[in-house]
Amino acid sequence: MKIAIQGEAGSFHDAATRQFFAHTPYSVLPRGTFRAVFDSLANGTADTGVVAVENSLYGSIHETYDQLIRHNFAIHGEVQLHVHQHLIALPDVTLADITEVVSHPAALDQCREFLEKTLPHVSVREHSDTAGAVADIALAQQRHEAAIASAHAATLHDMHILAENIEDEPDNITRFIVISRQPAEIAHANKASLILTTDHQPGALHRALGVFDQNHANLTKLESRPVRGQPFRYQFIIDVLANQATLITIIHELEQLGHSVTLLGHYRSAPVTLDIA
I want to staple 198 with a disulfide (CB 3.0 to 4.6 A). Which of 156, 185, 204, 212 is the partner? Predict the structure, then answer.
């Protein structure tokens, strides 16, 4: 199995992939952007993709949702990873040597308070990938640079962790989804992701949400995204906890109200797990 991920070995996408496919043989196809992951599935280069959809501190990753709507790929599962960020540099380098910190924009945002308090005079540079930033520093032997990335990235490139767990908030959780071109029947599925397009009448969303309430189904996500080609009209990404029978009823009742519903996937909800080394 070929799995496309955003980032390289040692990235948090890599950690999520290792977590989900711990008992399945696979090879990773590193990609520079979320769009490239989706394109790899679309052209058949990859069988599966793993992409982040939201972070507990910074909310939704809109690019992922927009690509889900564009491609209508199936969601097979999820991983909720408790992310720990580390400041990583070459061996024997100290904090006093660092003049520049490099990482993915999301990782830099998650460690803003640490950088301002501990390294207030260093410059900050964005990179497309956390693990890629570590690899670049290791390859160029840049003693004045440090990267923010996972502990696994440091191990892969024989680098030194200058400071551990530097994220500003301890409850830093990122949710990843596993996607494929084809849907799959998942045993004991209890969570679904839907695209809902309402009939664009006053109170339409209120009536739609009432369907979930009447069926005692708990919404865990409601995300609005623009409908392309229809200015100021929106469609909604919904995550809901529901078994198969309840899900069928919900979809039927929404369609009876005149709404359009696309089922992206019915899968098992995942507990939060630790970032794995």
Answer: 204
